[in-house]
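Here is one chain, start to finish.
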Amino acid sequence: MPEKSDIIILELENAVKDSDVERAGEAARKALQAGVDPIDAIEKGLNKGLREVGERFGRGELFIVDLIAAAEAMKSAMAIFEPEILERKKERKVLAKIVIGTVEGDIHDIGKNMVSVMLTAAGSEVYDVGKDVAAEGFVQKARETEARIVGASSLMTTTMPAQKHLADALSRSGLKVSYIVGGSAVTEQWAKEINAYYAADATSSVGLVKRLVGVEA
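Its structure:
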């Protein structure tokens, strides 16, 4: 018969797969009350569930709305776990800390949201600064979080220069980060011109991040 902790971890996994925000939060509270290690709950429950959703999305079985809904369920549980993790001064093992957002002047964020979810599912700690964000907003968040990677999306040719502004701002900042650009308006040639890495889509973003941090894709 499964142990109580295993049952709760499975509840967390299923809550994410079912995109059930309320159930995910309840399962997280139940986990802490039962003495389940929050790191185990995240890695074996939440992350496992989100990875499966991401894989199904990659196979064309789910849509972007499903991916984002599953991420919302995970966030609900993480809001319960994070204070406990900080109190115990334990750190999750993460693939990379990443700041991501849509550049200044561009209000499109569906693609950026998809990349954020896929990177989270792959084990990254993603800090989403949102859309229409000035270069300094990216730089400030990268400095605050000690992020290793900054990703900037642009879906319009008119906002692509903002990706160059951010490249320059990161260079001036002295931060040691890898810079990734993407979006429907962006090409690999453009990325090379501004000394950035290019990610064509959410799936390739995960592979690129793994290569940048020295993990086999």
